[in-house]
Amino acid sequence: MSNPNPDLKARVEELANTRLSDCYQCGKCTAGCPRGDVMDVPPTRIMRAVQIGNVEGAARADSIWRCLSCLTCSARCPKSVNVSGVIDALRQISVENGYLSASSVKITEFQKSFLRNIRRNGRTNETEMGVDFEVRYFLRRFDVMNALNTAALGPKMLTRGKMHFKLGSPVKDKALVKRIFEKCGVEL
Ligand code: SF4
Ligand code: SF4
């Protein structure tokens, strides 16, 4: 377990706009979570880790990248703790501080490819996004098995019409999309 870091704990509270000390570990957030079965650290334990200042430990958990941001945990919390907001804050802290595990690198690279695609076209083009992701992920991890699996999958998806070579047309108001990204300060 990492050393407690009060600055990071305060940052989570600020980003999530919630009071961590309100959590009394009832477990309702975990009980209602649709992704609880694939999480290494369930939401209740994430909350406890952050509460005692182990923000780094929580931000290194794979769970935060398995979360769907469905808000069920926040809605069910009897103390109105913004659990989903805490998880969002942890994602941000994880990226900023390089706390990503091997499996979460894949998830974050995919999310970046998705956002780059939206920034470029204003809508997704799956082929373009897929190529962008696979090339960047390979260059980052040199994951040969992943590259071979994808290469085997590509032709099947093309022949079954699940992917197309045709590039999608961008939205009319690309300037608006650009302004949204600038306003959010998204770095990709
Ligand atoms: S539901 Fe709320 S009070 Fe209960 S464990 Fe989760 S965050 Fe804490
Ligand atoms: S927002 Fe995330 S942690 Fe909360 S219930 Fe949904 S999937 Fe689970």
Shape by Cα distribution: globular
**Considering the protein shown, what is the CATH homologous superfamily of the largest domain?**
Alpha-helical ferredoxin
Task: Determine the number of helices (DSSP H or I, runs of at least 4 residues).
Answer: 11
Main structural class: mainly alpha
**Integer-rounded radius of gyration:** 19 Å
Distance between the termini: 30 Å
Average pLDDT, rounded to a whole number, is 91
Q: List each distinct ligand once.
A: iron/sulfur cluster
Name the poorly predicted regions.
Answer: none
Topology, number of strands: 0
The overall number of domains is 2
Kindly report the CATH topology of the largest domain.
Answer: Fumarate Reductase Iron-sulfur Protein, Chain B, domain 2
Largest sheet composition? none
Q: Classify the beta-strand content into a percent band.
A: under 5%
What is the CATH level 1 assignment of the largest domain?
A: Mainly Alpha
How much helix is in the residues? 55-70%
Task: Provide a short characterization of the protein structure.
With 188 residues, the chain is mainly alpha-helical.
Which tags fit this structure?
single chain; mainly alpha; 2 domains; 62% helix; globular; binds iron/sulfur cluster
Task: Write structural notes for this entry.
With 188 residues, the protein is mainly α. The chain has two domains: 92 residues, Alpha-helical ferredoxin (Fumarate Reductase Iron-sulfur Protein, Chain B, domain 2, Orthogonal Bundle), CATH 1.10.1060.10; 83 residues, no CATH class. Helices cover 62% and strands 0% of the residues. The model has no long low-confidence stretch (mean pLDDT 91). The protein binds iron/sulfur cluster (2 copies). One iron/sulfur cluster (SF4) binds next to helix 6 and helix 7.
